[in-house]
Design a protein that fits this description.
This protein is mainly beta. It has a single domain, classed as SH3 type barrels (Roll). Strands 4-3-2-1-6-5 form a six-stranded mixed beta sheet. The longest helix has 6 residues.
């Protein structure tokens, strides 16, 4: 797993395909907390991604090991459960 300490607030999160998935709010433990603006129909709260999905951190981007559409399926709610519907 990539060192998550290199991930900073407001970095862009992109899939392996280069497609924008979200923006980092902060890192909490082994998960990336995305900004509320990137939570689609769930815009009143944050979604999270497992740090295990991070392939690399370069410049102002966090590149995931999965394409953005697949990574979106793996987004979690704060308590760790799967989201009820997609963006």
């Amino acid at each position: 797993m990539t060192d998550l300490s290199n991930i900073k607030e407001h970095m862009e999160v992109i899939g392996a395909d280069g497609v924008h998935l979200g923006t980092v709010d902060k890192v909490e433990g082994d998960r990336i907390k995305l900004t509320k603006a990137d939570s689609g129909s769930h815009s009143d709260h944050h979604h999270y991604l497992s740090g295990g999905l991070v392939a690399e951190v370069e410049g102002n981007q966090v590149r995931l090991s999965a394409n953005a559409d697949n990574a979106a399926l793996l987004e979690e709610e704060e308590a760790g459960e799967a989201i009820a519907d997609l963006k």
